[in-house]
Each structure stands twice: as C-alpha cells, then as structure tokens.
Amino acid sequence: MSDCGAINLPARAADLDIIGDVHGCAQTLARLLEKLGYQKRQGVYQHPRRRVVFVGDIVDRGPRIREALAMVREMVERGSAYLILGNHEVHAYCYCTAHPHAPGNYLRPHTPRNTAIVAETLEQFANHSADWADHLRWIAKLPLYLASPELRVVHACWDESAIARLQTPQLSMPQWQALADPGCGTATAVKRLTSGIDLPLPDGAQMISAEGYTRRSFRAKFWPPAAQQYRDLVFQPDPLPAHLGERPIDEHLKAQLVVYDSDQPPLFVGHYWLNGTPQPVAPNIACLDYGAVRFGRLVAYRNDGSARIKPANFSWVYVDP
Q: What CATH number does residue 104 fall under?
C-alpha cells in the first residue's frame, strides 16, 4: 500500500463527516458509512461529495481489527477519508517497534498492562505479520491532528503548546523514538494530544476504574473556565467518589488546565467513552466516542460548516453484538 495522503483538510470543511473511535467494529462501521450515503466503488467506501475524518483508535479491543484497519486505510489511500492518530495507534506502534539504543527492548515496555492493551490486535494479526508490519509503517506517517480555519480534529485534547512543541502534525522518526522516554517533551506533547489531561486525585487517593485498573488520576475536561470543584472537571465514564468530587480546585490544579475557548473553531475529539444520546459537550466541541466496542454507539457528525455544534447533525448506529 502507498503512503497516507495529504494531512491538510480540504477547503470545504462542510463536506466532512467525522467518525468516532472504531476499535475493530468493522461491520458496524460499514453500516454507519452506508447510513451516511457512502457506497462501495471498486471495493472502497466513497461518497460523491463528502469525505470522512476518523478521529483515531481504529485498532485494539474489537472483533474485526484487521478488517476495520484495512477498510479505513483503503478509504484514506483512495482519497475518501482522513485518519489521525489515536492513543491506541501510538501505543501499538511503540509496543511493536524495537528501541534503537537498547537491544531487546521496545519503545514501549512489554509490561502486562501494555501487552493487554494491544493483545487483540496482535492476536488477530498473528497469521498476517507482513500486513501488520506494513500497517505499522503506514501508521508512523499519520498526523496527530487536522485543522482548517473552519474546524479542528484531534483524538483527545487540543493544546496549542503541545502542537507548537511538535512543530508539525506528523512525527519524525527521531520523535517516535523519543517516545521511549515518557518524561521527555515530545512524549508529553503526544500524550496530551492523544490521551488528554490526566489530573492527580487529591491527597494521593485511588479509585478502581470500570476496567478494573487502579487509578490515581482522572481524565479532565479542557473547556471549563468556571470550574470550582473536582467534579466540574471529570470527563470519563467513572465518576469520582463523592467526597473527592466536592473538593475545591486550588490554584496549582488550575494552572495545569487547558481551556479551549468558546470563540475557537469547532473541535472534534474521540477517546472519552461517553454514554447516552450524542450531543455537544460544549457549544463548539463534540466528542464522538460513545463506547462502540462496548456495544454502545458508533457515532458520526455530519459537518455543515456551522461555527456551533448542532445536535441534529449527530448520526449513529448501535454496535452489532
């Protein structure tokens, strides 16, 4: 397969359909594309006037990861879609890429937790190692974000300082290799764009997530300028314990926040596993991850060029059992 296409959004952002985290739900993705009016031509889903932007996280967790990744890649290479990196693509690449200066090691250590994250992907590609290696080379060339004057797309959080740190939407090979050091500036910037803001729980507290992991931090919103308590910042399926949620936010915590102002262009993200009926999370922000791989909804937003997110423009299908 050829390299990924141009990373700039087309001039007519109103012709874009933005689709949330797929996570290997290939059959559900096909149904959503057909609902949006895309049809297979020469084996690839296309639309006569519109193109898709995928917010990342095509791989991991789901039942048909190979099919989903091939479908999306073919759309990108045919010019009917764009794809940005999600945290799962970043993780998969780093997990599978040898560390250039530490023989026998990888850019991401093979700990039990890191292995569990990518397990389904590696299992489904076990008999297709050449295809997986080719996909990894392609993934390495994908952008971390897309932007035009009319809209922006990033997997988890739009942070101007992180974007400035990286300088370009695509990572160079030295930047990929730098991700082996999670404390370096490059790794911090990539994590911010693909995983969002993680804030520490107060007083060293811990909580158990729905996936059974012990958490000492929580995913936070990046648009609440008037937040006063911890619960005002939470943006994840697992609520904070009541006694923690009611804690006031101190100035040190406020200094760690990123605020996406309401006068900025519409922003589309995935990543956060929302529930319920899809709707804007802020007047100019839409999250399109509604837990497809957990039998939730695979969600799209049919952009029309408006400066505000419209509830009527969300479209979705429920995930096949």
A: 3.60.21.10
18: amino acid identity, one letter: I
Beta strands in the chain (DSSP E): 16-19, 39-41, 44-46, 51-54, 81-83, 145-147, 152-154, 197-200, 207-208, 214-215, 217-220, 267-269, 285-287, 289-290, 297-302, 314-318
Which domain range does residue 29 map to? 16-195+259-318
Which two structure tokens, joined as six digits, stand for 90? 């970043």
Give the C-alpha separation, 262 to 308, whole Å: 9
Cite the beta strand spans of 166-284 per DSSP E. Answer: 197-200, 207-208, 214-215, 217-220, 267-269
Upper half-sphere CA count for residue 133 (Cβ side, 13 Å): 5
Domains held by the chain: number: 1
Span 82-131, pLDDT tens digits: 999 999 999 999 999 999 999 999 999 999 999 999 999 999 999 999 99
* 124 lies in some domain: yes
Examine residue 10 and state whether it is found in any structural domain, yes or no.
Answer: no
Strand partners, 183: none
Nearest partner of 222 among 208, 210, 236, judged by Cα: 236
CA distances from 174 to 24, 180, 227, 267 (A): 29, 11, 38, 29
Structure tokens at 220: 């936070």
Instruction: Give pLDDT tens digits for 143-198.
Output: 999 999 899 999 999 999 999 999 999 999 999 999 999 999 999 999 999 999 98
